[in-house]
Prior knowledge:
This protein is mainly alpha-helical. It has helices at 10-21, 24-28, 30-36, 40-68, 72-75, 82-114, 122-134, 138-154, 158-185, 190-198, 207-220, 227-232, 241-269, 278-292, 297-333, 338-359, 373-400, 403-410, 421-443, and strands at 367-368, 371-372. Strands 1-2 form a two-stranded antiparallel ribbon. A hairpin with a 2-residue loop joins strand 1 and strand 2. Helix 13 packs across helix 14. The longest helix has 37 residues, at 297-333.
Amino acid sequence: MESRSKFASKIGIILATAGSAVGLGNIWRFPYEAGQNGGSAFVIIYLCCIVALGIPAMLCEFVVGRNAQANATRAYGGWPWKLVGYMGVLTGFIIMGAYSVVAGWTLEYVFAAVGGMLNGDAEYIQKYFADFTANPVKPIMWSIIFLLITHLIISRGVQKGIEKASKIMMPILFVLLIVLVISSLLLPGAWKGVEFLLYPDFSKVTSDTFLDALGQTFFSLSTGMACLVTYSSYFGKQVNLMRSAIQIASIDTLVAILAALMIFPAAFSVGIQPDSGPSLIFITLPNVFRQAFAAVPIVGYIIGILFYILLALAALTSIISMHETPTAFVSEEFHLGRKMSATIVTLLAMVTGALCSLSIGAVPSLQLFGRSLFDFFDYLSANILLTAGGFLTAVYVGWFMPHRIVRNQITNWETANGRFFHLFILLAKYICPTGIMLIFLHQFNLI
């Protein structure tokens, strides 16, 4: 088995870890949440949640990962805490299987946009999506292609694979996003969309708004599924964990706000109310692009292609971290080389992804507990496993991990400023567990 690798540069750490956080949820969930919860009023609350919950939760995982310098199952020490690591590996794998299905859809839509197959009215676009997802072969084919691309990156290792790919993909993602934002803002009537997003409507702020912001914070930063624990195990001793967490959270938030500035102006320019989930990016937005750029069809054609390339990149940067977590586990626990470990994980993910795809298309009888396999995995991971992993990690760091070890990690062995250490411990002990518990209860409509 090869010796354990490290990220080679600080920029590589930031881009790779930010890539783990930046995903499709930034593009389809944040704009909708902001629009439904008072525009910039929600953004302000969300930023407060990032500071009070998101960054501390991320720091907890960084502390656990870098201290252990091992895969997630070894990072939490002995039993029973070791179970948190196993749960994190399982969560990452389950999410990867379901996520690879939607990621495959982005590749289909890149292909369809290039081929001009998304030109049609709303009814046509809706039928295109329904026919595609019901096809027993095409969605699985694209999911497999996506996983193979991920496999090629993961199998090359931390520096030559994950870090190198992140240094290429993340700048491209930002350039594409900025181009699309500018194009959207130049549309007639676009300013209504900007006002809708940025004008603070506090009349829409309720207790649910705070809980929605907490939930968006938690899920947006990739906490709770051991990805950050695994990535931070590749951090060197010179990495300032607090500064890195702040930078990564800032990048993730910037992407979410830019995505909203891309979607709302375009949607309002043609009088369409954006919705949430896959229906937004695979049904609503193709129609938005067609109508918004009807006067210059070639521009709409190019914008459509760029948008789905952006989606594919966002999905890829996230799924890489999901793949790395079980790959590191297989490699270190079964003493296998990286390529063999990555191959095992990829093959298992292909099977899982294929079954998930069939369950929402050609074989709806593939169900567990009354839900399609895809919906069951999504529900299990998002509503239970992620929140449990985040909650237990915060409790472990705040209450059970020796504070001397935590302080060494936060202050880089007293070489970095430690004036916020006691505040961090306070947040890890009380605020993070309480916030995550509120998210959990809110998901089940218990509060």
